[in-house]
Specification:
The protein is an all-alpha fold and about 110 residues long. It has a domain of about 70 residues. About 55% of the residues lie in helices and about 0% in strands. The chain is built from 5 helices and no strands. Helix 1 packs across helix 2 and helix 1 runs parallel beside helix 3.
């Protein structure tokens, strides 16, 4: 059976993230977590060679190997990192502030 190349369903969503990671010189926690997450997502995926290759480039560019990246990523998560708290836009969750709403009488 021939190896069938597939288009990953999240390729178009992940491509801009990968492009951003390739531009990073000194990775922040969010960058390390994103890179580790995407490496896991595309691991052994039959296709998306462009993204897989660029992820490997980012690991090398940052002077890491996969084992050290995963170790650092686990340490980041262990100390309480949550993606929505690290977002640059300052929004948490949906961004809707329900505290300003008056309580509904029961």
């Amino acid at each position: 059976m021939a190896n069938q190349q597939q288009q990953h369903p999240l390729h178009s969503r992940d491509r801009p993230v990968v492009d951003r990671l390739l531009q990073v010189r000194s990775p922040r926690e969010q960058d390390l977590v994103d890179l580790a997450r995407l490496l896991q997502r595309y691991h052994n995926f039959p296709g998306a060679e462009d993204i897989q290759g660029d992820l490997r480039k980012a690991v090398k560019k940052w002077g890491l190997d996969q084992a050290s990246l995963y170790q650092r990523s686990r340490a980041i998560w262990a100390k309480g990192f949550r993606p929505n708290l690290a977002a640059d836009d300052g929004l948490v969750g949906s961004g809707f502030d329900s505290a300003s709403e008056a309580p509904t009488p029961s």
